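[SOLVED] Need 3D model of a two-part complex

Original post:
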Amino acid sequence: MDKRLVHSLIDAAAGRTVSDLAVLNAEVVDVYNRTTFRSNVYVKNGYIVGFDSSLKAKETFDAKGKYLIPSLIDAHCHIESSHLSPSEFSDAVVPCGTGTVIADPHEICNVTGLDGMRYMLSASEGIPLSVFLMFPSCVPATPFEHSGAVLNAEEIEQFIGNERVLGLGEMMNYPGVSGADESVLNKLDCAYRRKKNIDGHAPSIFGSALDSYAVAGISTDHECETPEEARDKIRKGMYVMLREGTACRNVLQLLPAVDSRNFSRFLFCTDDRQPQSITEDGHINYGVSLAIRNGLDPLLAISMATLNAALCYKLDDRGAVAPGKRADFFLSSSIEDGIKAEEVFLEGKLVAEYGKIIKKARHTEPVNVSGKMDVKGFSEKSLVLKLKGKHVRVIDIIPGGVVTGNGDAFVNLDKDGNWVHDPDADILKLAVVERHHGTGLSALSLIRGYGMKHGAVATSIAHDSHNIIVIGDNDRDMALAVEKLVEIGGGITMFKDGKELGTHVLEIAGLMTDSALDEVTSTLDSMHTIAEKELGVNEGIDPFMTLSFMALPVIPALKLTDSGLFDVASFGFVDNTID
Amino acid sequence: MDKRLVHSLIDAAAGRTVSDLAVLNAEVVDVYNRTTFRSNVYVKNGYIVGFDSSLKAKETFDAKGKYLIPSLIDAHCHIESSHLSPSEFSDAVVPCGTGTVIADPHEICNVTGLDGMRYMLSASEGIPLSVFLMFPSCVPATPFEHSGAVLNAEEIEQFIGNERVLGLGEMMNYPGVSGADESVLNKLDCAYRRKKNIDGHAPSIFGSALDSYAVAGISTDHECETPEEARDKIRKGMYVMLREGTACRNVLQLLPAVDSRNFSRFLFCTDDRQPQSITEDGHINYGVSLAIRNGLDPLLAISMATLNAALCYKLDDRGAVAPGKRADFFLSSSIEDGIKAEEVFLEGKLVAEYGKIIKKARHTEPVNVSGKMDVKGFSEKSLVLKLKGKHVRVIDIIPGGVVTGNGDAFVNLDKDGNWVHDPDADILKLAVVERHHGTGLSALSLIRGYGMKHGAVATSIAHDSHNIIVIGDNDRDMALAVEKLVEIGGGITMFKDGKELGTHVLEIAGLMTDSALDEVTSTLDSMHTIAEKELGVNEGIDPFMTLSFMALPVIPALKLTDSGLFDVASFGFVDNTID
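Solution:
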């Protein structure tokens, strides 16, 4: 707010000037009293000025009795998971009723460091969606892999004062906080000194174990697994997020924790939501509707997705339809069985109707975040997996999640002791190739349960360091897939018998694209079909997302990084061969 | 929070170091889930670290199953109304369970300007009670009187950045906001630029009239008169305070507005609470208990008086018993019929037991705020009330409030046309004598309903400009009373037949004293008895507080300032004589 703006709002509210817009006959959702009331809503210079039906307005829009709901706030997301650049992401989620996101650019910063922060800030400036950022607190996520950057307190310090940076992103390093590691405390201190928020990430941590984490002033968590855990985190002063992403979904799990006494401490978030999920089901509106359909009072659900998030992140100018708040809202014919964003207004302008954006968001050319694919010394020969014996460890894919099993198997070796694919066993080769610094590092292991009969699939989305990960039965297709990604600057690709079957280009850091959501979804849909029909990937698993989580060494049980096979339970590297 | 402190808290929470204090067997009030749980509570360096019963502590305190409640927050008060200096105020309200107050030093700043801000900041530093200040937004309160200072945006700018100044105090100038007056906008802008709060004060303003006030980002109101007004202010985004002061009390009036859906938008405050009310009934605990006894869920009531206020004023370090929050709490045997502060802990130290403070607060010598009593050209002759006729206006006292009636009467005049007291009519003379700048200004009028038979009462507490106000039947006693106040630097005094009957010295700005609460109460009690028995003041009215509101020209209907008789309805001065 500033004086001049407020002056104009007061004049309009008092009827001394004409408002820009009047939305007539709306059933306004009052997220403060958690009730509704029938009124006109007047807007001036992008802000709501009041409800006085004697006011005049330049334009009117008849809401015809529809519910007028404040724009939804996604309290925690990674825009990168949508595969979309910020402007395309805006065009994708604004029609879903989302007006504001608190985004943690953890993925792009793992690849491009501060250039990623700069890009995310500039590319999200001046677009219809309000994008606030949390500075990623854990880059790299672990010391067991090579990411594109290392971000410590000195780097945080450069951005934490930015008005659109609301604090420190999900602090995944529970042992570091609870152990009072100096480097972790230095990061937290950047937020303390600016009085900014610190988001949490503490799966399955509750009770006594939680105290030494919450005591550091960590104010949210989006990783609760049970209602008991959620209520305990709330007791410890944290806001708990009901997350409905693509892989991780816990709205239904956590709903029993929400009651009429504690609902003010819950938020909604998407965390990681894939393009297809946005196309098919929506965004935050999906989680809210799911909660409503499963018994949550619609007005409590809406206030959780709006006012609560605004309070948590101290966004005083939004989260409600009230005088002085941004004119970000949407109309929905009903709220009883979920919400629909039929007409969406941001800053008092109609920006989307029935799921379609009216005018595309301003596009920002990616700078210093494109084509980063510094792979050195890689060839087909790098993929030869020499084993000390036939009894080996295998990563067991568990469908529908990001967790794997720590399995074993007996495999065939050639005369040199190299692994040989057995067409009758569902075991494939997995490789992670370092792509940030040309270190020439790569590591190999075996993986079971993917189903592919023949060919290779590679992706440069490989949480959290986003090296290239490739799976295949033969080294030639695998090598071709890796080389293709290097050539195009990142993406997802499939090869079979030396032939490229399909490629999804992710030219921004190998994670995102400036293509629109429908294009991305259509490419991915056809690639999914090819993966299933031509490569034989198991129907029950997502061929690309599953692959993306095989290099994530913070999630159990057995993972592969560019430095080797990692056993999460013992928190160390292990050999492919079992003695 | 800072890094070193957090380091020590984490170590204690994780059990690597010994805590300072363990409160054992407490029924802890969880203001987030609005429930309770049985636990030990561990404290280190003044902060709560956790609930893990395996922790060790240097000292223990057995709560014996009592409720452990976060310290209460008074969301809006004028410390001056207690007649106590900040350190004595701390000793008075801490035993009531109050841990934090948001104080608006409106009174002392009207007398002493920025010296008052400086004094209130320094005198409230390092005392057990946490005192945050709101910079007074309306000094002087009106242009119809002479206060000791004029505070505009330039003055606000000097203090608004202070960590303990949370924003701009109650904006009483509704017409100025709604009319978008430049000088008012300049004041508001000081808060906008620092992202600080702006408290409201808008009695009986709701519906459409409220929009042009709320749109300026005013975030609280403590002047609601009806449940409808309260719910409307909440709808417009304001927190509504349930106030239980001495003269103004609206907890019971507004309680019907509070429900299980909107309770997160209500706070408790005292506004103006006289010393006797604190002694007899308590402080914020009284309002909370009153609400509970009248049907409000005790856990909602407690969360309104703690967490809600912390959220409203963005005091992230308090308002709950949770890891990382200040160890400010008290024990109460029950909560079902109200709360009692039996043992009070601030920053983890036992500071009060059963209403008694254990160690007096650090005292700060008043600087530049004492003995300011610049009265020039005043004598008994100044009190001669010459009238143009016998039909006169009289201020009609209405018992129990601050509102007066605009009455008329026929009075006796001497041969010179001067008013003569009629022992059979309950009409007395009232004078307001300017005391800040030696202007020699004084004004006279007539007042009815005080009951005094013979003598004079004078006080330097006269809202909001705090000139000297004196009432009497004869000029000699009135003059002596005024001269006494000038001599002692302010206070309350009574004279009869040239003899001083009792005096309450308020050496700090003529508003407050460094005497303790019990001394103040005992002085006032005996003076009340004298006023009633020896002067004959009506039993139904407070002889001193009533007088203090007779010079307040923002409250209807007829008031007297140093500049003349003021008719609030026509918002202008009127003559004593009716044509």
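Edit: Chain B is about 25% helix and 25% strand.
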